[in-house]
DNA sequence: CCGGGTTATGCAACTAGTTGCATAAGAGAC
DNA sequence: GTCTCTTATGCAACTAGTTGCATAACCCGG
């Protein structure tokens, strides 16, 4: 139940319209909490109904018109509450690991190509993160907020590094498997 | 849409009843594809209705009686199809990273304790994985199936190692933050 | 023989996320 | 001026996962 809190965070960083939020979820925030524009609009409606955010009064709210939102004090309080409350880590699900385990039973046929493709996708994401790091965290930009945000980005960078390396390892193991295992 | 395939994999490794599957999902399979017993029973019903698995005829199917299932040829074929089909990686969601980003805006108050708790949970999981590795993959146990399963376990071990280290890093950054950031 | 815990199975309702499609305004092409 | 493309907003239906609870048999102590 974190989408509303992801939106509150984004809106506190900068008041935005639904579409602007969608764009930002495609870039930074979405890297660890993805959401589609449909989800975002629905949630904006709920948050407004609950009195946690409000539409900026500047523009008229006609359809096809930008409608920007800002966070109200109640919204900030709710985000602070949620952030500090103890939460259990959610179990993660990874389809690729499951497929590999299945492959041990039904054969590895066809898997190697997708392993290779995933490796490239992770490498691409890693390059993007590094570019963001270069742009947003030059040496010297290390105020408290910068440090926290940089920490989050580092997790992304290190995770993508991990996955590229692990997939390389997996591919090298594949190369050593006897052909019979591949069905 | 991978729960049915997780169940097919588990049943191919060993025919089981719903409860046995639940136990196995709490241990090995569930480490990368978790499921509750309610999900499992529901899915077993669907898989049986689709003709991918069948109840072993040994026991009578009364309530409170063990009912074990085995995979039919159609089920094995479906699992092989799914394993080899190309799939896009799902975007991951990580509430802790989101909370850290929120903390950069609303303050880090209360977060540090949970960071520490998560660090311990990851360390515990890591110890469990290492124990499984010691028990299930002694030197010499390296047939093709073993190699694949070991690869999956290695991902788990390396991920938990990564998270413990990253959380240590995060905690050391917290120690250096000025008190004002902590609200 | 009965009362409480454990094993085993399962339904129903709810919450969260995804997919498909609809609507409307403005911008520029011709 | 109207056609089409892009921007912007949003509803509805569906799929997957979670939570809460119900049922029933067996097992063991007293």
UniProtKB/TrEMBL annotation, chains A, B:
Leader sequence residues: none
Transcription regulator PadR C-terminal domain sequence ranges: 93-173
Domain Transcription regulator PadR N-terminal span(s) in chain numbering: 7-80
Recorded superkingdom: Bacteria
InterPro entries the UniProt entry points to: Tscrpt_reg_PadR_C, Tscrpt_reg_PadR_N, WH-like_DNA-bd_sf, WH_DNA-bd_sf
Entry's transmembrane regions: none
Record PANTHER family: TRANSCRIPTIONAL REGULATOR YQJI, TRANSCRIPTIONAL REGULATORY PROTEIN
Protein name: PadR family transcriptional regulator
């Amino acid at each position: 139940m974190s989408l509303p809190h992801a939106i509150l965070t984004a809106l506190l960083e900068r008041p935005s319209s639904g579409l602007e939020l969608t764009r930002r979820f495609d870039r930074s925030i979405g890297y660890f909490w993805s959401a589609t524009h449909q989800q975002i609009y629905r949630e904006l409606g709920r948050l407004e109904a609950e009195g946690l955010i409000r539409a900026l009064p500047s523009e008229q709210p006609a359809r096809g018109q930008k409608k920007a939102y800002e966070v109200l004090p109640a919204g900030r309080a709710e985000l602070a509450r949620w952030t500090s409350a103890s939460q259990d880590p959610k179990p993660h699900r990874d389809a690729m690991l499951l497929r590999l385990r299945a492959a041990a039973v039904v054969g590895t046929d066809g898997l190697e190509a997708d392993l290779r493709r995933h490796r490239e996708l992770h490498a691409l994401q890693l390059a993007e993160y590094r570019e963001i790091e270069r742009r947003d965290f030059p040496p010297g930009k290390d105020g408290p907020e910068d440090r926290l945000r940089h920490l989050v980005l580092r997790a992304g960078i290190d995770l993508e590094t991990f996955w590229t390396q692990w997939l390389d390892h997996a591919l090298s193991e594949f190369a050593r498997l006897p052909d019979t295992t591949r069905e």
